[in-house]
Every structure is written in structure tokens, then in C-alpha cells.
Design a protein that fits this description.
Distance between the termini: 21 Å
CATH architecture of the largest domain: Alpha-Beta Barrel
Number of helices: 13
Helix content: 25-40%
CATH class of the largest domain: Alpha Beta
Low-confidence stretches: none
Keywords: Isomerase, Lyase, Magnesium, Menaquinone biosynthesis, Metal-binding
InterPro entries: Enolase-like_C_sf, Enolase-like_N, Enolase_C-like, Mandel_Rmase/mucon_lact_enz_CS, Mandelate_racemase_C, Mandelate_racemase_N_dom, OSB_synthase_MenC1
GO molecular function: magnesium ion binding; O-succinylbenzoate synthase activity; racemase and epimerase activity
Strand content: 15-25%
Pathway: Quinol/quinone metabolism; menaquinone biosynthesis; Quinol/quinone metabolism; 1,4-dihydroxy-2-naphthoate biosynthesis; 1,4-dihydroxy-2-naphthoate from chorismate: step 4/7
Family: Belongs to the mandelate racemase/muconate lactonizing enzyme family. MenC type 1 subfamily.
Bound molecules: 2-succinylbenzoate, magnesium ion
Length: 351
């Protein structure tokens, strides 16, 4: 299958309200879609680097790497594209290109992408709601999540004093019956983390991502041992090292962002290694476009559609490149169609 046309389509999508986390605020989302065309079919991928979050590569470097990859794909065969993925030296660009290639190849084979990745057919993926930071309007977002059928709501912590946030979380827990997934994005010293985690130990907490500003396998293990719920490694994955993490099992959970890891196959490999080591794996999106979220959702469906993944970021965008996958009763509904199951629409579909 020869790639007859390769297009790059930049986007800038405003958020309904800023996405705030410890160390980062995001007001709009910029990325580039890559589209591959062959025999009347198209495959799409999303490249949306997050320079403000640790571990992300510089945006200009990323788009330059995507541009180079697009150039080398023009006129190449689909299989040559897949064989050349390892040569793309930028994780987010590689993720976009691999998504587009596998979307196209799954469409050729008439299979939804998760089926093309070797999984049984799934119609939905369980997800946590994304409720933003623990601020004044958090309670209304949590109540809305409960109303919309979510069992787990994710909240960013580490943006205010740890004792104050523990009090706010307790107040929220008394208002709405829901489980909390917290993400400190490396905000706390070990002492602050201990103070917060001890103060909320009796609340319905599903897990806490990245509690420590300076995580090591030793301090994470100490913290995990005093927690009744899962702690998770997310952005510290490569700093701590996947192999060391699997051997140590210092935290119960690992968050994998395929956009940051650099592809579907690489993420599947890490996820299976983590599962074999006895860790829980959660796949998350990066407040990217509906194309990126759909790709991560297909991957999550291939891995474990029943575990709540962090893929409900679509509602934060005021505009999107395609109608996002619908959220129903705490799950992302997967399209029936082949490949990703969605294509860019409106201005993003013209070329
Ligand atoms: O996990 C979720 O529900 C949403 C994804 C998310 O929180 C996130 C989005 C962009 C960048 C970093 C993160 C994060 O998990 O730290
Ligand atoms: Mg996280």
C-alpha cells in the first residue's frame, strides 16, 4: 500500500477554562495532525507536545521531527513507514506517525484499531472524569461527574497548602459519593506528601499520581507502604527507568501516556511488562485533540477496557478537530468503524 499523499494540519484549540496542575497551566492546545492517504483511505495521527509538563520535548523540535518524518513517508509503502518508525527520534512525532500508519492499515483490513492490535472487540473503555484542580468550582465539576455516571473523578492537587487541600477534599467527599483519583504532578516534599496522605487515608481514594517533587524508588516505596490506596508513577517513568520500576514495584500503579512514550507498540510493550510485574496500568491522554484521544482509547481498549483510564479530557476543549468520542456513564464509547473510527471534520478535513 503506497502512501500517495501525506498532509500536516496544524491546530490551535482553545480550552473552555485553563487546565491547571502543579507547575503548569494550559490555556490552549496546539498540535499538528498528520494524514496519510492511499487507495481512497486515510489514516490520521495527532502530535501535541506538552512543553510545560516535565518530560515533554520542545515543541519546535517536535514539529520539525514530524515534518522530516512526513517527508520521508511521501511515496513510501505503508510497511516501509512502519519499519522506519524506530528512526524517528522524537517520541511525540513517532506516536503521531505510528497512529496514522496503524489507522490506515486497520482501515485497509476493515478492523477497529484495538482489534488490529490483537485484542478482542470492545465497545467502550471505562474512564475517570477530569475535574481539574481542587479549587472553588471543583465541587460542581465533581457533582456533574457523578451525575454523568462516573465512579472515579480525577483532581489535581499540589496547587495549594497540603493541609488546606486535605480539608477541601474531605469536604468534597462529604458532598458527593465518588472515588477520587488525585494527581500531585510532583508537587510535594516527602513530609508534605505524608501530611496530606495521612490526612485523607480514610477517604474513598482510588490512587495518587506522582506525589513527590524528587521521587526515587526508595521514597516512593516508603510512601506507598503507609497508603491504603495505589500510588502511581507517571511523568517520572523515564527518569526512574522502566526496568527498575518493574523490578522494584515501589508503587502499585503506573500511568502510561502513549503520546509521551512514543507510540502504540512501545506503550503496549511497557504495559504488558508492568502487568507481568504485578502493577496496575492506566492509559491517559494529554488534553490532545479527538484524534489523539481516540488513538489512546483504542490502545486502552486493547489492554484493559474495564479499568478506568484517564481519557476524559475532551470536554476541556472549547473546539476540537472532530466530534470527540462520546462519554456515556463513565465510559468512552468506541466507534464501530475501522481504524480510529473517526476522522478530522470541518476545516481540519480540507486539503
Ligand atoms: O489522567 C487524566 O484523567 C487526564 C490526563 C492528565 O491528567 C494529564 C494531562 C496532560 C498532562 C499531564 C497529565 C497528568 O496525568 O499528569
Ligand atoms: Mg499524572
Amino acid at each position: 500500500m503506497k502512501l500517495e499523499q501525506v498532509v500536516l494540519r496544524p491546530y490551535a484549540l482553545p480550552l473552555k477554562q485553563p487546565w491547571r496542575a502543579a507547575h503548569a497551566t494550559l490555556g490552549e492546545r496546539r498540535g499538528v495532525l498528520i494524514g496519510l492517504f492511499s487507495q481512497g483511505l486515510a489514516g490520521w495521527g495527532d502530535c501535541a507536545p506538552l512543553p510545560s509538563f516535565s518530560g515533554a520535548q520542545d515543541r519546535a523540535d517536535t514539529f520539525a521531527a514530524l515534518e522530516r518524518a512526513a517527508q520521508s513517508l511521501r511515496g513510501a509503502a505503508l510497511d516501509e513507514g512502519l519499519a522506519g518508525l524506530a528512526a524517528i527520534d522524537n517520541a511525540q512525532a513517532r506516536w503521531a506517525v505510528e497512529t496514522a500508519l496503524r489507522d490506515l492499515s486497520a482501515r485497509r483490513d476493515g478492523l477497529p484499531l484495538h482489534r488490529a492490535l490483537g485484542a478482542a472487540a470492545a465497545s467502550q473503555v471505562a474512564v475517570n472524569a477530569a475535574a481539574g484542580p481542587l479549587d472553588e468550582s471543583c465541587a460542581s465539576r465533581v457533582a456533574a461527574a457523578r451525575q454523568n455516571g462516573f465512579d472515579i473523578v480525577k483532581i489535581k492537587v499540589g496547587l495549594a497548602d497540603a493541609d488546606e487541600e486535605a480539608r477541601r477534599l474531605r469536604a468534597l467527599a462529604s458532598e458527593t459519593a465518588i472515588r477520587f483519583r488525585l494527581d500531585a504532578n510532583r508537587a510535594w516534599s516527602e513530609a508534605e506528601a505524608r501530611r496530606f496522605l495521612d490526612a485523607v487515608a480514610d477517604l474513598p481514594i482510588d490512587g495518587v499520581e506522582e506525589p513527590l517533587a524528587q521521587p526515587t524508588l526508595e521514597n516512593l516505596r516508603r510512601l506507598q507502604e503507609r497508603c491504603p490506596f495505589a500510588l502511581a508513577i507517571d511523568e517520572s517513568l523515564f527518569e526512574l527507568g522502566p526496568e527498575k520500576i518493574f523490578a522494584a514495584r515501589a508503587t502499585r500503579r503506573l500511568v502510561l501516556k502513549p503520546a509521551r512514550i512514543g507510540g502504540l507498540a512501545a506503550t503496549l510493550r511497557l504495559a504488558r511488562q508492568a502487568a507481568a510485574a504485578g502493577m496496575e496500568v492506566v492509559i491517559t491522554s494529554v488534553v490532545d485533540s479527538a484524534i489523539g484521544v481516540a488513538a489512546a482509547a483504542q490502545l486502552a481498549a486493547a489492554l484493559d477496557p474495564a479499568r478506568a483510564h484517564g481519557l476524559a479530557t475532551g470536554p476541556w476543549l472549547a473546539r476540537d478537530v472532530a466530534p470527540p468520542l462520546p462519554l456515556r456513564n463513565g465510559a468512552l464509547v468506541l466507534p464501530d468503524g475501522p481504524g480510529l473510527g473517526l476522522v478530522p471534520s470541518g476545516e481540519f478535513a480540507e486539503f
